[in-house]
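Note to self: keep these together.
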Amino acid sequence: MPAFADPADPRLQTIEQKVHAGERLSFEDGLFLDESVDVLTLGRLANQVRERRWGDLAFYNTNLHLNPTNVCIYRCKFCAFRADLRDERAYTVDEKIIHDRVAEAKQKGATEIHVVGGLHHKKKFDWYVDVIRTIHDAWPELHIKAWTPVEIHWFAHMTKKSYEWIFEQLIDAGLGSLPGGGAEIFDPEVRSQICEHKADSKQWFDVHDAAHRAGLRSNATMLYGHVEQAKHRIDHLIRLRDQQDKTGGFQTFIPLAFHPENTKLDHLPKPSGMTDLRMVALSRLMLDNFDHIKAYWIMLGEKTAQTALAFGADDLDGTVVHEEIYHDAGATTPEGLTVEQLHRLIREAGREPVERDTLYRRVLRDAEQPVKWRVGEPVAPLTAA
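Structure:
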């Protein structure tokens, strides 16, 4: 068991003073917290930041996932989802499946559909655009959060067009925002070990920069618990913080726990629940200009995600029906939760559930027909980021 810093350690006391005063933590502060401070102290400090901003509110949304294909040109070592074109596991959805998914979203009263998948090298850019257009034409009110920066970079590579042109086509088809996948760990030495050849960190940021300039909001992630070290995690968080200073376009940060099962890194242990809580707390403390920290229950498990609401997280994601990527990597969580189950998890944690849409506006439900909804006011933090 590691030896953690004594509460009287002057470095820890200085950091506590910064947290109380709402001051920005440095790289050295973050490294010390990650390597030398116990999880309960981290949680206590992160919870102060979380409650200062959101009080007892905890957010969720009603959403479905669509993974249009698992065929992928890349061979990331951490991925259990991808398949080769001729693999017996390989699949690509057709228009009927997309329409069925949209019909299910309507039936469940979903406000968002989350679309990510593999980079199918036999599909032209128009196919990816048509996935968005098919959803949007079938139900214009449904928010489409789709295509990570890795996919956007691939589209630019395929078409020899700029990111700006790519976003013009996607927005015209109905794109509403970007998810935050593909970030993994930004350090090039780590990327070369787990996802070489994929879009690098500069390209990931360039895509988000272009998205923010186009008026889109986006999320950000970090995949932890594999070959990275504390210095890589803190560097990752500070790079995100610097980008947010420039554009302000990130909405939410999601720390993602690595699931080794069925991957080329299956010799590594899965991160523990304590590690998961450390990463949530550390993220809340370092990302002072991000409004939201999400505890993604699909990856963390319901119990750890619930506990994370006391360790800096203010969002559980949503109902997440039909998620496949992390379940292929051994996630044993359900493929979806009901709104009632999310409410129970949140209330048992001493928080008050608030349904929000993708852009963090309150969702107002019809009392007699809950599947009917309209968008209300944006949620407002008690203190600004």
